[in-house]
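Lab notebook, bench 4. Still working through the backlog of constructs that have no structural model yet. Next entry is a single chain of 134 residues. Request: give me the structure tokens for it.
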Amino acid sequence: MMKTFLLALLMSIPSALFAQQNAAKDTVYNGKDVDKSPEYPGGNEEWLKHLSHNIRYPKEAREKGIEGMVVLQLIVNENGSISNLHVIKSVGGGCDEEAMRMVDTKKKCSPGIKDGNPVKCYVVVPIKFKLGTD
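Model written out:
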């Protein structure tokens, strides 16, 4: 009886450890909870250059005079890829779709780092749409 109990106990330890490791692997951190936040290659300056050279003001937004800040949320995974991209603040007129397109054209980011290991992190990306004074 004691041998059976001991064997059952020993068999349950690896599965409990495995479950904890999987839970930790599935954790998505906020930027304030990591040692180093995810970053676009070359930093914010390069991201702004990428935006300024590639963003297209949507025709509908331009015709209707729509301006504003589209705010996106996404996850940067441990390998730097992006997932779970969605709009958390919309302005409409095609701006939301253009903001999402811009993030989809992004190169891989450097992942967030916690305790020396790459981790999944939530990232919020604001993209401002402002009509020029032509």
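Notes after review: The two ends are 86 Å apart (CA to CA). Helices lie at 2-26, 44-54, 59-64, 95-104. Flag for follow-up if needed.
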